[in-house]
């Protein structure tokens, strides 16, 4: 098949996405597909061949990429593009997607997980991987996802939906409970998240998160072991326990070598695994998600799993969490990538009926 692997984009998770996309593209090419990596934001500015030849480009236009210890400077990324217009779609992106049999969405964060690119591809009749635009948008918004958790009985920390300005910070710092978690509603990869324990830290956290937007959820901090469970098709996969080498599993520990130890299957009882797996599957279905997702949990010292959030386009580097879970049931990375394509094509076909 001709497959466009769409990655990059203009979000705080841009670099993570490029690493995911490169891994997926190379895996699909190794299995005989004509896969090509396309940066959602930069587009085909660096490609000077004929459009119809792009699927035969050497190494699928992949390049060596890595995730730095800090989130990308998006203003600097914008400045690199020759076309300085307002569109987040780079040169030729939709045209090359229209030539593909399917678009593999290796995007993360804004413009990828928020449903907008899915809606654009739907309007053009272009098949893509993962969930549709409505369910993607709902899952990306932490306040909406929390409401779904509450409505279907999934245990999640007590929380508050909040819009605020700089002028509100002194009042909020005095009245919000601590310790807590302050999270931008549409963030990912632990960007735009602060975990204050004191009122002084809370005030600083509110100032810090405001850089990413004025809509946050503030939730009670639950202490315990960090877990994640993926859903693939109609089943949930083995859990992973994440043991950060720092206090928390933040952006740096997620993506830097040695930042965390990941145990798969997690050293937990089958009952606890099923508790999390059933919750992940219930949330997946409640939001109308399809193909695959990954839900994150905190497991407290009483064996209770608290759901944090759901990811509709989780990391897909060869060493990411979902590939680890798939490997635990005997599915290698390339097979997982092809399974996501297969399930997605069936889903898009069902949606057109």
Description:
The chain has 353 residues and is α+β, with helices and mostly antiparallel strands. It folds into 3 domains: 127 residues, 3-Layer(aba) Sandwich (Rossmann fold); 144 residues, D-amino Acid Aminotransferase, Chain A, domain 1 (2-Layer Sandwich); 62 residues, ATP-grasp fold, A domain (Dna Ligase, domain 1, 2-Layer Sandwich). It is 35% helix and 19% strand. Strands 8, 9, 10, 11, 12 and 13 form a 6-stranded antiparallel β-sheet that branches. The protein has a 4-stranded antiparallel β-sheet with strand order 4-7-5-6, with helices on both faces. Helix 1 links the parallel strand 1 and strand 2. The longest helix is centred in the C-terminal third of the chain and has 19 residues. It is globular. About 1% of the residues have low confidence.
What are the defining features of this structure?
3 domains; alpha+beta; 353 residues; six-stranded antiparallel beta sheet; four-stranded antiparallel beta sheet; single chain; D-amino Acid Aminotransferase, Chain A, domain 1; Dna Ligase, domain 1; Rossmann fold
Give me the CATH architecture of the largest domain, please.
2-Layer Sandwich
Number of separate helices: 12
CATH class descriptor of the largest domain: Alpha Beta
Query: Which strand-content bin applies to the residues?
Result: 15-25%
User: Helix proportion of residues, in percent?
Assistant: 25-40%
Sheet/helix structural class = alpha+beta
Question: What is the C-alpha radius of gyration, as a whole number of Å?
Answer: 20 Å
* Arithmetic mean pLDDT: 92
Main beta sheet, described? 6 strands, antiparallel
Within the CATH hierarchy, at the fold level, what is the topology of the largest domain? D-amino Acid Aminotransferase, Chain A, domain 1
Indicate the overall shape. Answer: globular
CATH evolutionary superfamily of the largest domain: ATP-grasp fold, B domain
Low-confidence stretches: 249-253
**SSE ordering:** EHEHHEHHHEHEEHEEEEHEHEEHH
The total count of strands amounts to 13
Number of domains: 3
First-last Cα distance: 23 Å
